[in-house]
Design brief:
This protein is of the alpha+beta class and about 350 residues long. Among the domains are: about 55 residues, no CATH class; about 150 residues, no CATH class. It has 10 helices and 13 strands. The strands form 5 sheets. Strands 1-13-6-7-10 form a 5-stranded mixed β-sheet. Strands 2-3 form a two-stranded antiparallel sheet. A two-stranded antiparallel sheet has the order 4-5. Strand 2 and strand 3 form a beta hairpin.
């Protein structure tokens, strides 16, 4: 006996949008200021430069590579090293010594403008649709593009996130798979409950295939490459012809010796039909038999089940069961075209 089962699928819904909140007018965010060299560090730098210099024509000159070495040692730019060296030489001419003290005293620099907590609160109040780009986020926050870029790239106050649509499961959606699993529980003679092996199930589904793949890899000779003898051409990559196939598979089965007695491959059939060409074109003459894709309707799908799938199941499925006693389940999804009628039931009874 053959039985047809439908599998229900969960519906997908997008998540709810958070309510929009007004942005705060004044934000205070901590901005990391550039660290300046202390008095001890400046004088240590001058000492290193003096050790790497020599007097030539009553003028002290730095050795080759001295600026780069000091720049790496004190983690400053070469231009800063040159500026400190020139200032030290000027101090030597005026005061007779190279000793310098920084002009910036204590905590100096740009005042703190933003506060991370306030920025996070402001960003969370912006709709997710307006946070897709840095410019869109900057317009929503009332900040400049550069300031927003620094918040993201340098200060890491705002993070980049990529998300995909997730299904919104209801209690009914969670219950259906559970009932499906419970339905496959079997009780053995000793009272032990086990999950069904699935050896009595056949899974069928449709699959699209491109007649001409968009990218293919073959090994060719230099002559073929030069003359482009192997080249796939099409009018447009979005107009590649596709063919739908109906595939039927089952669980592979093995005997007691571990030998495969059934590989699970039942069959694969294309939804095509051959028709004569209605008119002459540059490709063929009128009346030439062509292979055309078939529109999968309820009648076409049922015809494939009756004339192709069911005979293939009886032909290839292991004959370890007596017909009429055990049930073979055909598992498929449930679009409108998969609602079979009386013709399928008659075909199942005819094969018992």
């Amino acid at each position: 006996m053959l039985s047809l089962q439908n599998m229900s699928f969960c519906t997908f819904k997008s998540g709810c949008e958070p309510p929009f909140l007004p942005l705060p007018q004044h934000l205070n965010m901590d901005k990391t200021t550039k660290k300046n060299l202390s008095t001890e560090q400046i004088n240590a730098l001058i000492t290193d430069l003096l050790d790497r210099s020599s007097v030539f024509n009553e003028e002290r000159r730095l050795a080759r590579g001295a600026v780069q070495e000091c720049s790496k040692k004190f983690e400053i730019t070469p231009s800063q090293v040159y500026r400190i060296w020139r200032t030290a030489q000027q101090s030597r001419k005026k005061n007779g010594r190279y000793h310098l003290s920084p002009r910036k005293k204590g905590r100096s620099g740009r005042k703190v403008i933003y506060d991370c907590a306030e920025v996070n609160k402001a960003v969370e109040s912006v709709e997710p649709e307006k946070r897709g780009t840095i410019r869109g986020l900057a317009d929503s926050l009332g900040l400049s593009y550069t300031t927003t870029w620094r918040l993201i790239k340098e200060q890491k106050a705002i993070l980049t996130h990529t998300s995909s649509i997730k299904p919104l499961l209801t209690e009914h959606h969670k219950l259906v798979p559970l009932l499906y699993a419970v339905d496959h529980i079997r009780t053995m003679d000793n009272g032990l409950m086990v999950y069904a092996s699935g050896k009595d199930e056949v899974h069928i589904n449709e699959k699209w295939f491109d007649l001409t793949p968009e990218v293919s890899r073959v090994y060719i000779t230099p002559f073929e490459k030069e003359h482009q003898q192997i080249q796939q051409n099409t009018q447009h990559k979005s107009h590649i012809m596709k063919v739908m196939f109906l595939a039927a598979v089952a669980r592979p089965q093995f005997n007691d010796n571990g030998e495969c007695v059934f590989d699970g491959k039942i069959g694969m059939w294309p939804f095509v039909h051959k028709v004569p060409a209605k008119r002459t074109s540059v490709n063929r003459k009128k009346g030439t038999i062509e292979t055309k894709c078939l529109l999968v309707t309820k009648e076409v799908y049922e015809d494939f089940l009756v004339n192709k799938v069911i005979p293939a199941i009886w032909d290839k499925f292991p004959c370890t069961r007596s017909r009429g006693k055990d049930v073979i389940y055909i598992q498929h999804d449930n679009p409108n075209s998969h609602r079979v009628g009386e013709l399928f039931n008659q075909a199942c009874d005819a094969n018992n």
